Amino acid sequence: MSQKTFSRTMGVVLLSGMLAFSASSGAHPISQIRFAVDPSYPPFESKQPDGKLVGFDIDLGNALCAQLKAKCIWIESSFDSMIPGLKARKFDAVLSDMGITEERRKQIDFTRPLYNTPVQLVAGKDTQLLPTAASLQGKRIGVEQGTVQERYAQAKWQPHGVEIVAYDDQAQVESDLVAGRIDALFTDGAQAELGFLRTPQGQRFALMGPPVHDPIIGPGTAIGLRKGSTELKQSLDQAFDTLVENGTFKRIMDNYFTTDISVPR
């Protein structure tokens, strides 16, 4: 074999080895993740007076980024514009208490489920309202636009004489409940208990009836991703597994909730 042929052959072998190593170790490590968030939803996400974003999802997202050695960038968005914004590449992922549903799966992908919280009705303590069409007939029920609560209420209650009022964000729903412009609101039970009922304006209200379970509501919450974001999904799933295994997820969860909201594995 000539020296040129030998050198050329060795070069091909070395290049093939480098490509194989690059593929196995990750040719394009994730350097940053742009998360969409709706900061009107404590304790999952809210904004302090100084503008700093805080909450369970914020801490979880920051922990995921730290595990991946990536920079977290938080982009504020109304909830109902998150899927269009994700598809338009305004951000890379949605981490904002977004439930997994079959309707959403038609448009976007999800990571594995991260947590699961109950969906419940909130109304005045003396109203005796229940989350049923019969109990709510003739009432005005507030929901945040784009949520599973809105879709469930429109499908199950609205055809039976319940008026469903949709709002741009959760703060507006709560404000109208306090002002008496709606009779009840339908939301994430953990958000209601910790983000509204424990505040001064929430003292006259309570969770009414049992949690609502339905395929429309889905099996839990995950991170929303654009279709085809395979590498990002795999990286986030692996990072989340590590946070669960090393106890980081539990520590974050215990900072916000008195009950276990983790998803059985």
TrEMBL record:
Subcellular location: Cell envelope
PANTHER family per record: HISTIDINE-BINDING PERIPLASMIC PROTEIN (PTHR35936:SF13), MEMBRANE-BOUND LYTIC MUREIN TRANSGLYCOSYLASE F (PTHR35936)
UniProt lineage: Bacteria, Pseudomonadati, Pseudomonadota, Gammaproteobacteria, Enterobacterales
Location, primary (coarse class): other
Organism encoding this protein: Sodalis praecaptivus
Gene3D superfamilies linked: Periplasmic binding protein-like II
UniProt name for this protein: Lysine-arginine-ornithine-binding periplasmic protein
Gene (UniProt): argT
InterPro entries named among the record's database cross-references: SBP_3_CS, Solute-binding_3/MltF_N
Domain of life: Bacteria
Signal peptide: 1-27
